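Take a careful look at the sequence and tokenised backbone pasted below. I need to know what the token row says about the fold.
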Amino acid sequence: MMLKNWKKGFTLTELMVAMAILGVIAALTVPGIKRDYTKKQFQVAISKFYTDLMQVGPIAQVETGKVNLKNASDFTDNNWVNKYLSGTLKGDGLKTVASNSAKHDGFSTAYGTINAPGTRSSISNYCKKANGGKTYVLDNGYAVCSLPVDEDGFVTVYVDTNGNKAPNIAGLDLFSFKINLNDDEDGSVTGTTGSCIDSVTADGCFNLVMNNKFKIPYYN
């Protein structure tokens, strides 16, 4: 009498169920992994830019021989990016591009906010040529927009750490800063103030990131 050698495998139904389970797991985990990776990229980028920006004041003080930089011509004429910031960027290089009320070369034409990423608004009025604004594009892809020093001794700076590429969300790839050029401040850098999650120019966002050890706390 011969014994039959039975080999049992998975049925088609069982395979389809297993594939469906794997699909559900991937759908739940992959977006989160991608989101965390994207957030870490922008955390590193904004931390690097902040470090470079912090060097502008001390370099300018040495170059000009002035402690109070508020009335230094490089800042009143808004030429400081070419002269001081480019020297701190470790060979990234930069070029000046057009900046006017209608267009921002290097920046996106419109940005979303953390609360409403799909609702897009232009930032062109915040750094326009009529107000003395100048826009630069670095070789590493950063877009930088600066305004001349104001009457209180502050310079406003906007940066998009990946230029006009997505996601174009204020507080993620777009941030705004203030450089303090008054006596005894040495060009200290802080973020602009504001609500952050509802600001199209990321007002208040950098302060939240800096106070959270350069980790973005509001994009989950």
About this structure: Residues 13-211 form one domain. Residues 133 and 206 are 21 Å apart (CA to CA). The helical segments are 12-54, 56-64, 73-76, 80-85, 205-211.
